[in-house]
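agent> step 3/5: call structure_predict on target 'beta-aspartyl-peptidase' (Anisodus acutangulus).
agent> reason: downstream docking stage needs a structural representation; sequence fetched in step 2, passing through unchanged.
tool.input:
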Amino acid sequence: MFHLLQIPTQVRELENDPHFNAGECSVMTNNGTIEMEACIMDGSTKKCGAVSGLTTVVNAVSLARLVMEKTPHIYLAFDGAEAFVSLVDYTQPMSVVDEPPVPNGDSQIGTVGCVAVDSSENLAAATSTGGLVNKMVARDVAALMEYKGLTLKKATDYVIKESTPKGTTGLIAVSAKGEVVTPFNTTGMFRACATQDSKTEIGIW
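tool.output (status=ok):
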């Protein structure tokens, strides 16, 4: 059985990778600054935490977890989120984020995230990003399944193909039964899946 704390660990690894739009290497705003955001949810308890507008926290997903665990709130943003750092035992590295390098001169377009389900059908998920235009609210998928009775694949296909502009969206979704789908309407999406019995799947296109 996985532990919820494993989810932000995986996302932190991706935040630290300079090829993705997350963590220190998030894309710039129009003002030439970085504003990171992250969220995390424990499906078994329905607890969640989210932060946005971060400029000095290297691993935003770790702070989102602390919002979930240490406060009665769900979401903290900008100055409030930055001030929260001084009130908790934040053990991840912190620094004032300077202008990040852009690998090979290419723009970074990759939001990062991780979804997992254990043998008891408990789900947990986390995501982190420097910000993208037209980011999708994943609640749309759950609503289509709950209220229209769609399967996971049909719900995600509808959101990707009908609800979001082409070239803007990718999604990783896992059902309580362990079904995994990774639809996208972009040219490609870096993605990977692993199961407890060592089955793996990796894809880009």
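agent> step 4/5: record observation. The first strand starts at residue 36 and ends at 42.
agent> proceeding.
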